[in-house]
Amino acid sequence: MNDEIEITLDEFLKLPKDSYLLIDMRSESAYQQGHIEGAVLTNDHISPETELKLIFYCQYGIESLQTAAYFRKCGFQAHSLQGGYAQWLRTQDSAFDLEELERYDRQITLPQIGMIGQEKLKRAGVLLIGAGGLGCPCGMYLAAAGVGRIGIIDHDEVCLSNMNRQIAHREIGVSKALSLKNTLEGINDKIEVTAYPYRFSAENAAEILEGFDFVIDCTDTAETKFMVNDLCVHYNKPYCYGGVIGFEGQVMTVIPHKTACLRCIFEEPPTGCETCESHGIIGAAAGMIGCIQALEAVKYITSPDKLLTNRMFIFNMLTMKTRTVKFGGISSACRICQNPA
Ligand SMILES: [Zn+2]
């Protein structure tokens, strides 16, 4: 091996294991998500008298180059692993081909996702109930993120007045579920998308929900939202509620029998509720809420400790004011949560 400061992966792999100390310079959470075998996390292991080569790596081999240069000035035999952790990852057995690794590179880089999280996304199934103003952006981001199986249930057909917000649709008069499926397959051909072009109901819920890990309520009436809530809690299926009207939207995630459901908070659907038809809606507001729902799904699958559970996020996109209303958990008076499945 020459004495260049950068060491290639091939050169590194040929080194005798007892001839070097391998130091991972990334964050502790990135290290926990995955690291090169034998690597230590900090400089603490470096003894001033060491005879070992010091091999530093970071995500892409950029910061580690500076660190290696600094240690060389201090008299150590220091090197930086060329291409960093990302380069090493490409050589490992994985659930992904090279194209997928490149496609998802920017999120695999995130310590909260990493390779382990990306594999979880690939194995996960998310069901969208509704392929409208929330379902379109939500589904598009889930497809782009590499959620392995996406289901779409919607009985409706696309009409012209949908087009200001239902951005995945291109053609009037076709099934929304099939239209969104086409768009998602166009975004990412590495995932499996199933369309159910009929109404979600108590009769078909058990069969459809069974195949998915997480559900997103992208429906547009209060009655349907309460039905989705009741069925998800009954069949013990975690789900994300979302609603938007005018310029205002709300999001909350429900983990059945662990966190508050919609009925713990509101008991019954409010009567005389405004709808998009009566009150109007701006497309980008639906897009914001649909994107937050997609984030909740990604977080549930990869790092479930930061979810919008027992709290509702409320966003007024006209004033740009946000509120997060906290709830005390499952209500002892909730007839859905207090009724074991
Ligand atoms: Zn409840």
Fold-level CATH name of the largest domain: Rossmann fold
Strand % is: 15-25%
| Bound ligands, named by name, code or SMILES | zinc ion
Number of helices: 14
Please report the distance between the alpha carbons of the first and last residues.
65 Å
Please write the CATH class name of the largest domain.
Answer: Alpha Beta
CA radius of gyration is 25 Å
CATH superfamily of the largest domain: NAD(P)-binding Rossmann-like Domain
What can you see in these coordinates?
There is one protein chain. With about 350 residues, this protein is of the alpha/beta class. It has two domains: about 80 residues, Rhodanese-like domain (Oxidized Rhodanese, domain 1); about 200 residues, Rossmann fold. Helices cover about 35% and strands about 20% of the residues. A hairpin with a 4-residue loop joins strand 11 and strand 12. The protein binds zinc ion. Zinc ion binds next to helix 12.
